[in-house]
Amino acid sequence: MTTSQTETKPIISMENVSKHFGDFQALKNVNLDVALGERVVVCGPSGSGKSTLIRCINRLERHDAGRITVDGTELTNDAAMEKVRGSVGMVFQQFNLFPHLTILENLCLGPRRVLGLSPKDARDRALTYLERVQIRDQADKYPRQLSGGQQQRVAIARSLCMEPRILLFDEPTSALDPEMIAEVLEVMTELAGSGMTMIVVTHEMGFARRVADRMVFMDQGEIVEVGPAEEVFSAPKSKRFAQFINQILNH
């Protein structure tokens, strides 16, 4: 990150954010700022609140307490979220592609309906981003005709077609076979190098170490440790994070 980036207001700010599902508290007074262009990897054991955290950032889940500000707008209601919807893209574990539409049609839908692009402009943009994720030759196929890795790359291209300022990834490789994981991580690494603001929930520690500006470790709904990736890998401050890293690396 440049000095100018660190001096400006964060593009994402979470202040004392809490979230309950019934009696279960998924997030407990979470505080996190993310700067423009920063790449943050969120990790932690299952059920620690990682996915809930990023789902609150794009209001797929509504937080119960605290403040979330995204790209200058506080997320107080659905109208506020609509204001920043175009700024935030999301890539899920499952690819969430429309099975009855071709790959090209999947990518054109958002730019045409939400951004008001003409059919030609939407098509040109879609083909540009399919080229970027290296599957332009699959444009006329249907999702079922693609491998899992290819479908996830389509999902990334679909998010990019909205030209967001922020990309959220919710365990994007967890549904993939091992041989397909590398191709998706390669695309994500290229994106990270382009300066895209990214928050990535993942257990892929090699990717995290290579790409992340900062690591966030969560456990039981709380942020236990935050720090520069190389620093927290080489000398984790919390015993829980050290145990987690050992488990992942020795798995």
Automatic annotation (TrEMBL):
Extract the SMART domains matched here. AAA (SM00382)
GO molecular function list: ABC-type amino acid transporter activity; ATP binding; ATP hydrolysis activity
Pfam families to which the protein is assigned, alphabetical: ABC_tran
Q: Which residues form the ABC transporter domain?
A: 12-245
- Keyword Nucleotide-binding listed: yes
Q: Which InterPro entries match?
A: AAA+_ATPase (IPR003593), ABC_ATPase_HisP-typ (IPR030679), ABC_transporter-like_ATP-bd (IPR003439), ABC_transporter-like_CS (IPR017871), MetN_ABC_transporter-like (IPR050086), P-loop_NTPase (IPR027417)
Q: Which UniProt keywords apply?
A: ATP-binding, Nucleotide-binding, Transport
What family does the Swiss-Prot or TrEMBL record give for this protein? Belongs to the ABC transporter superfamily.
- State the name under which the record lists this protein: Glutamine transport ATP-binding protein GlnQ
